[in-house]
Amino acid sequence: MSKNFDVVVIGGGPGGYIAAIRAAQLGFSTACIDEWKNAKNGPAPGGTCTNVGCIPSKALLQSSEHFEHAGHSFADHGIEVKGLGLNLGQMLARKDTIVKQNNDGILFLFKKNKVTFFHGRGSFVKAGADGYEIKVAGATEESITGKHIIVATGSNARALPNAAFDEKLILSNSGALAIDAVPKKLGVIGAGVIGLEMGSVWRRLGAEVTVLEALPTFLGAVDEQIAKEANKLFTKQGLAVSLGVQIGAVTTGKKDVTVEYTDNKGAAQKAVFDKLIVSIGRVPNTIGLNAEGVGLKLDERGFVAVDGDCKTSLPNVWAVGDVVRGPMLAHKAEEEGVAVAERIAGQHGHVNFNTIPWVIYTSPEIAWVGKTEQQLKAEGVAYKAGTFPFMANGRARALGDTSGMVKFLADAKSDEILGVHIVGPMASELISEAVVAMEFRASAEDIARICHAHPSLSEATKEAALAVDKRSLNF
Q1: How far is CA 421 from CA 204, 217, 348, 424, in A?
Q2: Which CATH number among 3.40.50.2300, 3.30.160.100, 3.50.50.60, 3.30.2350.10 corresponds to the domain 170-280?
Q3: Is 122 one of the annotated binding-site residues?
Q4: Catalytic residue among 66, 72, 350, 454
Q5: Has 154 been labeled as part of a binding site?
Q6: Which CATH number, 3.30.470.20, 3.30.390.30, 3.40.190.290, 3.30.1540.10, labels domain 355-468?
Q7: N or C: less crowded end of the chain, CB within 10 Å?
């Protein structure tokens, strides 16, 4: 017997579970379908982000940073550590505990907001007078109907041609989070967010890490000045990054992986690694959705085709997050999920792609919002720039972390903030002030005139804003 809902969300990741909660808050009878399983085959909502992405990676980044501090920088604070050891099993167990806490938190939120949860894989069956019939394939198979359907099925790691993930030697983000012994030599293909974060984790724990990147520039999407500073700092830490390489054959042995590649000078190279992490991007997850069965249009890259409001080719079918165009970011998915629920309710949900922040949780962290300097030059926009180094910030000195800088880009005439770029301590937290400022179309002068607490890292933000007008006070 079919169960009828106003809104059915397929996928319980950041876009899906948030869309379901917001729809329920707006008074709709709402269901959310998600197939992620924990170690005991129980439900594990939260998608890639919670299970094998944002949350577990941050847990390991934090743990590995503590380990590195204990081994290298505690002595500067007068803290003597003798017999430092690594209990990797406990570190991974802590990560798993944090993941489960987030899974359970989402299930609690569903219950609190009266969202009906179905554990299984959701797929389209057919369209009918009452909406769309959706099949849920789980421990048992059942059918539900939704007047509105929100597709939030996320993305999967992209594999190298002829080198499929086995999660033992060739690892996706999932396998990279579950290595049971620190590899002596670790290879990483792709110097993006996942590659740099996972490379940083295992380097701190003792691995010799080599990162192979096809692009000729380091972090091409990041402001060039910030990217150069970050590359210099990562190299100093011991992260070996090779740019402009062409990957050839990847072959696995019993206990190692051999990668043949051509370096940026055209010379043939060969490297043997204990483990290989492949982080060359992600592809939309529409497998098993039965999009073709109901005529749901996909674009040439396999994404669900949507307009600016996340409407698909089918009436009352919407799609959000990694499965549609735009940046593959959890917080972008969340904002789209909220906006779609509100549009279903006749409201005017809105997502401003120009003020979506980006963060790389390495040490130092890298965060930015808005335009880069190279983008403004290419667009012919007249701008002013101001920078301030953390080495001149009192709180950074007290923390013992003075690497990096804050950079402001503002319109040359109006002084409106066009972009803010940070490499340094707690950049992920500092960027929020810039996002708020840009949402309100603030000027650099506005930030420069706001009183910031002393001593705080946020003073570097104020000083960079002052530097736009060449009147920084502490540098």
Answers
A1: 25, 18, 30, 10
A2: 3.50.50.60
A3: yes
A4: 454
A5: yes
A6: 3.30.390.30
A7: N
454 is catalytic: yes
pLDDT of residue 293: 95
**DSSP code for 146:** E
Domains 170-280 and 355-468 share a fold: no
Dihedral of the alpha carbons of 351, 353, 355, 359, in degrees to the nearest 10: 110
For 12-63, the pLDDT digits (tens) are: 999 999 999 999 999 999 999 999 999 999 999 999 999 999 999 999 999 9
Write out pLDDT tens, residues 91-142. Answer: 999 999 999 999 999 999 999 999 999 999 999 999 998 899 999 999 999 9
146 is in an annotated binding site: no
Q: Distance between CA atoms of 422 and 419, rounded to whole angstroms?
A: 10
Buried b (16+ CB within 10 A) or exposed e, 422-431: bbbbbbbebb
Read off the pTM: 0.97
